[in-house]
Structure formats: C-alpha cells, structure tokens
Amino acid sequence: IICNQRNEIITKSFLCSNDKTNWKEIQNCVYSTDYINITANFKNSNGQALIYITSTNLDICIQNTLEKNKLCLPIWCPLQNTSIYENNSLIEIKIITFNGTIAGITTDYLRVVLVKNETSLVLTNKLRDYYVQGTKLKISVQLTCRDKFLVGEPVFFKITEIISDNEIKNNYLNDTICEEGHLTIEYDVPKIDFFNIEIFYQGSVRYYSSIFIKERIEVRSPTVQFFIDSLIYFILILIMIIGITLYYITKRYQMKSKRAIWKEKTGFYNDINNIDYILVLDKISGSAIIKENLSKVDLEGNLISGLLQVITYFKYELKKQRVMYDSKEKILIDYQDYKILLRDGEFSRVALIIKQTPSENLQLELVEFIKHFEIKYKKYLEDFTGELTPFQDYIELINKHFKIHMTRPLIVNKISPNVKINTFQETLINTAKLLEKENKQFTLDKLLNDLIIIMPNEPEEKLLANIYNLIEFEYFHPIDIIS
Predict the structure, then answer these.
(1) Cβ neighbours of residue 359 under 8 Å, at least 6 residues apart?
(2) Which of 391, 426, 441 is the last residue of a domain?
C-alpha cells in the first residue's frame, strides 16, 4: 500500500515594517503601530491550511484559511485591536496545515511581544515651596523618549487649589510639546492657602504615560513675605555686624599680643643697654673671676671688687649673720651715677653695674646666670685657687643670659638662615645692607635710628623687636662676641 498524502510547511516569512515599504524580519518584539506581513509555502495534498494570530488579550485577532499550497495573509497592524496595545502583550503567529488522513498536522509559529517606549516628563524650571499671592508662576516641562523630544504630544496640567480645609478647586490646562521640545504654561497664584501641581502625559500606542507631582506649595500674602524677607536681610546685616566686630576684636587682640611681644623684646634691649659692667667674684676671697666692661668708660675691676667685698662684709655684720658664706643675699646699691645689683650664689658673687633700676627680667636672668655658672664651673669654684684659665669660655653664658653680643657691631649674614621672614623684616635687612655698605658694619642703635627716620609711622617697639628677631634668627651676625 502506497500513501501519497503530503502535509509539509516548506517556507515561511514573518516581516514587519512601520511604513509598508522597508520590511525586516521579526525578531523578539514589534510595536503596536507596525505592519506585519506573513506568507507561507506548504504541501497539503488532502486537507486544509490556515494562518492565524492570537494574543494574550484576544483569542483570535485574524485568521485566513486556504486550500492552496501557497498562502499570504493580508498585511495586518496590531493597532486594529485596542486590547493589544494597552499594555505589553504577547502575540503568537501560527501557520498550520492539517490532513484528515495519516499525514497528520504540521504547525510552525512565532511568539513576539508588542512593546511601548518609556517616556520621561521633566520639569525644566525649579518650583519653590512657596509663592506670593498675585505672582505669575511659569511651569516648563520637557517630554522625551530615548533622549529625543516628543514634539506634538499633548501634556496635561492639573492645579488643585486648597482654599480651606473643606474647599478645594481643580484647574485643568493642557498644551502640546513645541518643536523646541518643551512646553510652558502660566498660572496666576490666587489668594489661597496651598496648591498642588500634577503634570501628566497620558501615553499613546507607542509610548507609556509619565507623571510629575509637586504637592503642598504654600501661598503667602505680600505682607508676610515682606516681613520674612526683611527678617532675612536683618539677620544678614546682623551677621555682617557680628563678623566685622569679631574681625576687629581679633585684629585688636592680635595687635595687643604683638605689642606685648614687642614690649617684652624692647625690655630685653633696655636690659642690655642698662648694663655697664659684669663682675663675677669668688665669694670667700673676693677675687675677680670675670670682668666684662660694656661701657665706653674704663672701670677698674679689682678696685670695684674690693669695694663690693667691703660692702658685703659690712651688710652681713649689720645683720649679725653667723654663716655669711651660706647666704644668698641680693643687694642693690646706689653709687653716684650708677646702681650696683649684687647677688650671691653658693660659691660666687656676681655684680651688675647698671645705669637704672634693674627690671624684674634682668634680676631673674642674674639668678639663672649664677645657677648655670656654678653648675658649669663647680669643681673650680669649690676650691678656688685664683687660676682663671678654666673660666676662659665664660662668654657663652654671658651671651645666653645678658645678650651682650647685641651691643657688638653687626653685619648681614651672607648665607641666609633657613628661617622664614616677612616682607617687613626683608625691608629691615635691605636697610642694614645699605649701612653695612657705607661703614663695613653697623650697630643695632644706628640701624634703629635710621629706621625711625625711614618709617616714622611704625612704632619704635615694633622696629626694635624685629631687629632683635633678625639677630636671634642669625640674619644679623655680630662681628666679634669675644671680650
């Protein structure tokens, strides 16, 4: 027995196009506005063939049945069936041949999704949280899809006016997106409490809807807003006044601190100029160990030391002190045009011959000098024999405590120290260089006098303190600090 029945789908074609001209093969999805073209060649010697389309929302969209071996379904558009494009829908395109005999049924199909494009509704001007009654509010939006403007699409505005707790009024406005890709409407703010804004695009067969909501925008009266604005300006002015006040207080404090530093360093300078002679004696024998003359007048150190020893004995005798060598008395003596500040250590007695009453700082430095002097030379002072060789490097301690090197002639250091200075101090250095160029050297007093003439508006304390700093920083270097 030979069976000649045939039932076979030979070729098939599923194409889509948005203009019925440029067709392309359907892949995974089509738009609801696309056109669909379906054809098939098949063999069916004894039976029927049909093509039909079904969807998840509609059982049968379209169907055609022929008994020929070639079948072409009329061009179909999903837009013809509104139930399909309201949401994403799955459609199934089937080609079926069937035969009542043993050839059976042959089926081929394609499943695709009808899709829409996402849209973005964006506000292009910023909305505030409040507006004043009677002002004109402009609202501008852009509607885009895949970074392209949807020109000509309608956009709707709903402005809900909240007049009171029980009274609400809705205003509806609409317009279309212009060719520049935006839409602007104007709204006159009435005398109400609040209002809400809803902007929405309803979508179409190709685009999803989009919405923007701004709720509870406050409406203020002009009087209230004027008060708020005035308060803001008042606060700003108050902040400015406080800021300026703090600035001047800070500047005043800084200036006060600077003046305190200037005064302190001026005091150091006055102490240096106050000293005419430094005399260090052995406490027991009264022999002079150090004689440092800082004045222009020649003073006889041995004569002075003898005089001081007699005065000291006399003072101890008056006080009836038994153990005079253990005492560490301080004596201030007026002698003609001089004052003598006498201070005892454990092994030594130090006298400063000065022009004026000693400052507290000078007295403290004298105590510190005695302490460090006796620590350094203790083994020579405990059993003093009159040998002065071990004391030859005493000048280091003298300079440390009494800064006598600042009374020496100065020169500008050819190698700039690694200490940062300001422009004012640079000016002082340049003036010192001119003095040095004329005389090969300069003194602190000469530099100070020239600066007072050059800078008459600058406080003398400031000039002196900065010169003092430049010597301390070693920008100015003493020519000879060895007695």
Answers:
(1) 267, 270, 271, 274
(2) 391
